[in-house]
Specification:
The complex is a heterodimer of chains A (about 1050) and B (about 500). Chain A has about 1050 residues and is α+β, with helices and mostly antiparallel strands. Chain A has 40 helices and 30 strands. Chain B has about 500 residues and is mainly beta. Helix content of chain B is about 5%, strand content about 50%. The chains are: A alpha+beta (about 1050), B mainly beta (about 500).
Amino acid sequence: MSPQAPPVVAVVTVCDAGPWLEEALAALGEQDYPNMSVLVLYPASTVDPTSRVDAVLPGAFVRRVDRNDGYAATTNHVLEMIEGASHFLLCHDDVAPDGGAVRLMVEEAFRSNAGVVCPKLVAWDAPDRLLQVGMTADKSGAPSALAERGELDQEQYDAVRDVFVAPGGCTLVRADLLAALGGLDGAMAHYGEDLDMSWRAQTAGARVVVAPEARVRHLEAASRGLRPVGAADAVGVSAEALRRRHQLRTALKGYGVWHLARVLPQLLVLSGAEVVLALFTGRLATARAVVGAWTWNLEHLGALRAGRRQVRSHRALPDSEVRRLQARGSARASAFLRGQLGPDRARTLGLRARPAPEASAAADGEEVGMDGREPVRAGPRLSAVVWGAVALVLLAGSRHLLGSRLPALGQLAAFPRPSTLLRLFAGGWRTTGLGAEAPAPLAFALLGGAGTVFGGAMGLLQQVLVLGPIPVGAIGIYRLARPLRSPRARLVAVVVYLSIPLPYNALARGHWGGLLLYAAAPWMLARLLRVTGTPPYDGGPPPSLVYDALGLGVLVTLAAAFAPVAALVPLLVAAGLVGGAALAGRPRPAARAVAVAVGAGGLAAVLSFPWTLDFVLPGAHLSSLAGVQGPLRDALRLGAVLRFQTGPLGAAPLGWAPLVAAVLPLLVGRAWRLRRAVELWGVAAVCWGVVWAAGRGWLPPVGAVPEVLLAPAAAALALAAALGLVAFEVDLPGYRFGWRQVVSLAAAGAACLAALPVLQAGAGGRWKAPVHDLAGVLDWMPDKRRDGDFRVLWLGDARAIPLAGWSLGAGMAYATSVGGPPDLAAQWPHADPGSTSLLADAVGVAVSGRTTRLGHLLAPMGVRYVVMPSRAAPAREQTPLLAPPAPLTDALLDQVDLRQLDSDGALTVYENVAWAPTRAAIDAAAAAAGTRGGLVAAQGAELSGATPVLGRGRGPTTFAGQVPAGTVEVAEAASDRWSLRVNGRPAPRRTAFGWANSFAVGQPGRATLSYRSSPTRRGALVLEAIFWSLALHRLFTLWRSRRAALPGPTRTPVLPPPPPAPVGAGAASGWR
Amino acid sequence: MTAPTGAARSGSGARPARRLPALLVLAGLVLAAAVADRSAPGGPAHAAPAPARQRLQPGAAPGSALASAWYCPLATTAAGSAARGLLVLANSGDTELGANVTVMPVQGKAASRAVRLPPRAQVAVGLAEIVTTTADAPWVAALVEIDGGQAAAEEAVFGPSGITLTPCASSASDHWYFAEGSTGRDDTLLLGLFDPFPDDAIVDLSFTTDQGRAEPADFKGLVVPGRGLLVVDVGQHVRRRDLVSTTVAARSGRIVASRLQVRGGAPALGTTLDLGAPSAGTSWYFPDGATGDGIVERYQLYNPSDRESQAQLSLVLDQGEAEPFHLTVPPQGTVGVVTSAEPRVPKGVPHGAVVAVTNGVPLVAERVVTATAPAPRHGLLDVLGARAPARRWLLALGATNPATDEWVVVLNPGPDRATFSVQALAAGQLLAVEGLQGLQVGPGQRRAVRLGDHIRRDDLALVVSSDRPVVVERDLYTGGGSGMVASIAEVG
């Protein structure tokens, strides 16, 4: 030991060190600094390293610390143990300084009069690669690297300079300064103590400099999952959460009062924005960490105050001076972006961790990647750019739809009030057709409940549910692609999924069901892929048939509540997976998907009870399940099906682009990339095939809303495209240059070109959805209710009428709405038309030329208007011509009691001059005619003079008002649950016209007409509630138990990422 | 396939995925589907449905019908007017039907009368019994609503120049065509535009005359009131034209159009009331026809389209054969063939005629016969050809008595021999007319029977049924006066 050199003590804090310890100690032993001693500290709870230290560095002192409170607290013991040292070299046990590093740092400390000196940190295994050369932080304490991590060290940073943060690992600190600061912050068990110490040192007036000529190799053992966190406070807490809470603590401690008052609101805003961004991108752990940072600091408010007092006690510089070296703006945001776009060096640095056991090749006989190569990682910057662009395009493309009334096109009818929906759901009386006692769709309950949550803002709810599925689908596909472990592949999946024209066509055609399935399909596909338990969906807990069937079943139930044919989707997907897997040579794992799909379908049937019964009881029409499909002649051709051209988007040649992008893994993929690609193409092929064959009449007509069954195909293709990128990154380099590279370029080009039609469609601001709708054309109609309530009979091509109905054959449909254009309550007709079929009979009689008085036939049914659209939107919108057949139009023209009204060119409107209100007092002759049944009775009755009664509605099935003596006809399907009480006394009811209700009123007076729900209906609702409770409880229980079975949030990740905060906040501490 | 270089193989025990079979199967599926996709899916076409027979020519609704309607467009109910109307309703079914006859005058209020139609019977309703009009506005139209099918309505009008008869229309149309007409000196050409529906119709009239096209502005945008009648005197704006072919086009709504033609002069030739043709067609059938001294027979062909039409007029002679006439009708033009002046048509030989379009451009064909001395019967006869053969024909009005000579002429345009029978609706009985059962008519032949030789009744509604589709024309001749022709097809 040279008496001329200031004494330096290297403090090495050891905690369950791995085999690297000897190398680290040896490096210290090889230092050329003449006056250095080594002190090794280790917590009591860890393995005693004395023998290992003695073997390598016999002169070192080894001391045991009683408690394991983390690196900072353990290191602080040096202040009690050592006196007379000039400097302390605070070392992790996984750093190896070059031989002259300590000397260079001490020299620089004196030359620069620095309080803290940090070296240039380089990778342990690749010393030519930089880790950190000092760093900075922003006002919130978020660190920011000054050198790009993994960058080749070409001495480009080899200049001494002031830095804001001396990254942990190997830091020279003036001994008196450390003592003045009270040592490291012991509350920071792990991560962040380096930032805190540097900040406080500068507050105390000390310089913090980097001496790049001093080079230190750093293993970053904890970050790479080579050892667990040891401190009790940190167990069970993720590294990110620890960093966040300590960064915030440092910031809250470091500022004076006035500066803190200025910064604190900014910190809150930044945190809020980060939470939103994290939620949007599916990084729930980050969101939790940000929120947790605040709650943890609030819980440790006392310690925080103590820390602030201490900082105040040694403050020598104002905050304005301290902030001189801080990064401007949000270092986290800029680091986020910079890290995303910059080339990722982790792979070349050898920072790849060992494969997770569950994903290992041994588990599945698969290699993780070619040559052990992992897919190239993209930083968060690219993700942010892509997601930002996606958000921009979606917002711009929907700008004219947002905040304004959506066109009531197809299934996009206006939402009734929540109370109406809930009453319809609970009451058991359907208002579709001529009314019926039938279970109401689950959608009424869901929408009614959601509407209540929205405070009755049903327009807003509709916007959320109609426009929301597109971003939800994008998020879903992003999550679906997560197991690919390639952020770029995930982004490709998002871009390709959004480039598929399906959702925009669904929007332009008013196919809400298609939009909902677009949102749900990735989640359904994810469930079914995960249950196969094969790479890359073999991470996480092992698949559970019950759990997955429950989860998928609930999802399917929710989708099928709005689009009943969605219940078929899991089966189609499973069938496609099995088919594809058989092609790829391994069908067995995929067979599990079939079991889950069947289970999910069964659960959906149970959870939809008693609505399910409506579809299976005798008399049910398939059209109520799947909708009425358009004419066979207009069926989608194969090319249109493949291109998802169900509407204005998807025309060739650009319409083929998504398929070209998705074909890449079939051509260049290997191992699981190829296998999964074949399965996904199998899914797409099955969905395409069903839609195409159903359109040609070879299958039951399930393609009324083709987007519902095409949505899984879209998701499968998008995922296949993502697999293509993975194959490009992993498999392609293994091939010699040839056609595969050309194909890859073509696929990449196709993925880019695929977006062009969508961008073009979005330029209009409404995805080519019409501006005007038929409801607007008929907006005068509700005013006519002053003459008495009435029905509107809709006839025509099923694709043109803006509500769901029953088939008239040859792609034609009929349906009714009440009092004007239809609302959402008319979208799910009861499956057994029952009395409603009289409407079809009457129209059939007219079409066959067997009556010229259709109006009289429709009069007892309360039909005042007959509307026959020839387009789905007003003529000026130029939507496709869907003209009803000439026999139908001619038949209506021949009716002498129908008056044609002036209307838009897209629809023909007739007024029935013989109509009677749906609740009317009729004369004796009409009442007498009504004693007979069928259309013959209607033909002979003259109801045009009937008087409207019971005009005040108190809900969909309760009406009140004055009634005269005589006969009151109620044009609802006959049921003895309809009752009329006049002056408090019930009026006798009988069936009129063979299907309606007629009440004999003896004395005029005030009357109330109401429908009483049946006890069976109430019982069924209770049963349905029980089913839901059981299912959700079981699902939650299973979810919790599976979560509990996980190793914990700090478990070694499959591919541990390099620390997002490369240094600062102790991100790369080798001690941990 | 290029082998991977420098690549680690799959893990031990892993079976490589089968790329080629997968690619082949997927490509095969797409290929097979593409081949299957080349054939258009089936299903009824909406573009050009075959028009119902009732839309081609008047026709009764089937027996299963709940209701049917007949539109009888033009008559008068004013005392002493030129065309006093009489409706004749015939029920060929087995059940009694209720009917409601609503008479709608040009001015004034419509009135209705309920009528019972006994089964297998004929009922006559004088329109003046329901509404009486004034001489200033004498015209009425009638809507007959019948609670069932298998019933038909005809309208006869009586006047100083004789009696004329036309079937009522069983459907309305947005277009009506008349090939024949005259506004020459002493002639009167009236069009009755009847809108039986609740909403108004707006109508344009255009004409092709012997002096070119005429589209008077005053005949544009004519409003035919809903449930009302508009009578247009064509001669007011298309003056002194010996030949006037007419197109009635409704911009909105549908109507029924008829033509009342009064041929004046000295002596007056007579009056004809005819329903228009609701559409142009490619085949027109005329079962009867005659030439001879004093008889001028003319077939008038009117092409209302914008394309040239080529047609062939073939005569079906009872004796011998005649070369067909090949005719070219210019767009919106008219062509007349005076067969009585053609040497290829033997005089005095009864004949039928068939007009067949050869280039697909439809037209309208009428036959006009004027008979003057030395012909045995005098008068004017104008009839629109039949469009579609049928197996069953219902003739509501007829009589065989000393003052009336009635003939039924059956034309068989088909390739097979047809056997037909004639039955009378006789006060509730479907009476097989003796001697007129199981008569045969060869393919492409016609057969005329004189009813007076087999049955004598003052009210003689007939049903002509055949085992093959035929066309039936009924000719009524009143004591030396004008002949009358009508034909009604009943959908069987």
